[in-house]
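Reading a protein record of the kind used here takes little practice once its layout is understood. The fold follows as a row of integers, each naming the local backbone shape at the matching residue. With these conventions in mind, the following record can be read line by line:

_____
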Amino acid sequence: MNFYLTGIEGMPKLLDCCGDDPMKYFSKKAYGDAFQRMYQEHLETFDAIEQGYSTVIDKEQFLMNMADALTEYAGKKYDSCTKRTKRDHMMMDLNLTMAAFVLPMVLEYHGTSSEPLAAQMTASWQRRFPKAALKASEYTYIEAGFHKKFCYITTAVCETFGKPDDCYELMLLRDYRDGYLSALPEGDALIHTYYDVAPSIVKHINQRPDRKEIYRSIWDQYLSPCISMIESDQLSECKERYTQMVWDLKEKYFLS
């Protein structure tokens, strides 16, 4: 087997693992099975890269070539969209595919090449798409998030203020989400949208030097009023305020 050729041809195929709709597989019910199936489908690529990495002299250049092959393919897909709205949607899909499936698959292999390859991939992606700051996370972390039902934005705000994971504010909002919000006809769709955008929002805010000021503003403008509304049994009003928070922050920070 030509390990280099197998790897360089297999890398772009990773980006097509979800087809045209990565969100279809990014849910509590679908993610685990979909990820394991995709991982098995691309195992030959990871095997080839691991074998090649163990034999080449310039290991860094070897992995850089692998990473650039994927990024160049992503760039062609992105550039094929002529309208801005389609390009923005394409960018969201590409970032989600990379963050939730491709990079976790690379790390799931647990080879000597896995972590340095993931690092080369994020660096290559950053060079091609400067506004899309990816972070490589393992499958187990992402999959656990569906079961723990992370309140990403609220957690980030509370951590900034030194509040624990079981603080009153977080527990109140989690109970609201799992009780009132999930029971609404549109509740599952709202929660699903939140899990789509919130991790990226938090990631981009955390990279800013003024992140503490941003989180203070989020608390003052959205979360504190939401908590007061829940305490006053204004549950519908809380939903409107919280939904507005997600969309406002998505506009400002999702691809910033």
